Amino acid sequence: MTVDAELVAMMNAVFADHRTAHGPTAGPELWDQLRALGLARLTGAEESGGSGAGWHEAAELMAAAVRSGVRVGLPEHDLLACWLLEVAGIAVDDNTRTVALLDESGTATAVPWASTAQRIVLVWRTQTGEHRVADVDAAAVRITAGANMIGEPRDTVSADVPADGATVSEATVTTLHLKAALVRAVQVCAAMDTILELAVEHSSSRIQFGRPLAKFQAIQHMISDIAAEATLARTATEAALTAAVDTTWSAPHLEFLVAVARSCCGHAASVVVRNAHQVFGAIGTTAEHRLHEYTRAALAWRGEFGSVRSWDERVTTAALQAGGAGLWELITS
User: Fold this and answer.
1) Where does the Acyl-CoA dehydrogenase/oxidase C-terminal domain start and stop, copy by copy (predicted)?
2) For residue 45, how far is the Cα from the chain centroid?
3) Which contacts (CB < 8 Å, 24+ apart) does range 5-8 have?
4) Alpha helices, DSSP H, located in the chain
5) 26 CB contacts (<8 Å, ≥6 apart)?
6) What is the C-alpha separation between 12 and 125, in angstroms, rounded?
């Protein structure tokens, strides 16, 4: 699916202008603008105040924020928290949200953007094995601030499990996990694509020993590897996203496709980050240069909602279960 070019241009302009005026951190002024433009709940149902768009548009919106280096919990709000409330039949308002999956003790760790959210969507399993959802004020839970390596909030949320809540199915919670994993895959791909653009621009304009860096074969090889790995990761991610959207998140091998996307993103990030910093040399290691905003982001995001190793293991398990007779169908389905 091709997203309307004017919509993409508008998304890019929103985040680029915010970066210029306010820096990388999203504040109330950005959320107000996103709401006014219908981007805060881009995929929400129109009857509940959303814009009625799909995941392809949401992926472009996430990528626009990444390209501009703006840190905002938009996908957690729209694609995870508000979506879950709609599935559970709970009314959604304009407050910013994130999702916390509570364990048996009522605690959730590494919750994205909890310390900046106005409301927290709690998910827990009851003693009878049911999954329930509740939308609570952030002030009603205990939040211990934390952060990932790029300074985004990754907080610990502790809550007294509500006495009641809307019941959701096991399949809904499984889909929530897959959606969260795919959010990070999209963001990692956007970061790596931006790293590639920066590397190409730098190597073309930087003169060393009387000629551009891009004329040196070693630099060409490094940039080729960046491009190949970024393309592989993006292709795997787009395949998983397309299968999810085309089947309303019910494709028979969707978990395998998401696992492949996350595995490819995780391993690609290692090559892309290493090669990019070699291309840039000492310039790329300085805080003043923006390269680190994307390399550190790729490394941080690839380990969230599942480590690289855990996704590798899911790919391996699925392949072993398919066996020799079913492996080709698993890969091509």
Assistant:
1) 183-301
2) 21
3) 7/57, 7/60, 8/60, 8/64
4) 5-22, 28-36, 55-68, 74-75, 83-88, 170-205, 217-246, 254-280, 291-301, 308-332
5) 18, 70, 71, 72, 73, 74
6) 40
**pLDDT above 70: residue 1:** no
The pTM (predicted TM-score) of the whole model is 0.96
CB atoms within 10 A of CB 162: 15
307 Rama class: left (phi>0) / alpha (psi -120 to 50) / beta: beta
Per residue in 107-141, pLDDT (tens digit) is 999 999 999 999 999 999 998 899 999 999 999 99
Q: What residue type is assigned to position 221 of the chain?
A: H
Name residue, tokens 């994205």.
112
194, 66 contact by CB (below 8 A):
yes
Q: Domains of the chain by range and CATH?
A: 1-72 (no CATH), 76-168 (2.40.110), 171-332 (1.20.140.10)
Please write the tens of the pLDDT for every residue from 23-72.
Answer: 999 999 999 999 999 999 999 999 988 999 999 999 999 999 999 999 99
- H or E stretch at 207: strand 207-208
Angle at 122 between CA 118 and CA 127, to 5 degrees: 160
The answer for residues whose C-beta is within 8 angstroms of residue 8's C-beta and 6 or more apart is 60, 64
For 208: left if phi > 0, alpha if psi spans -120 to 50, otherwise beta; the answer is: beta
The CA dihedral of 7, 10, 14, 16, to the nearest 10 degrees, is 110
Task: Taking residues 82-101, report their average pLDDT.
Answer: 97
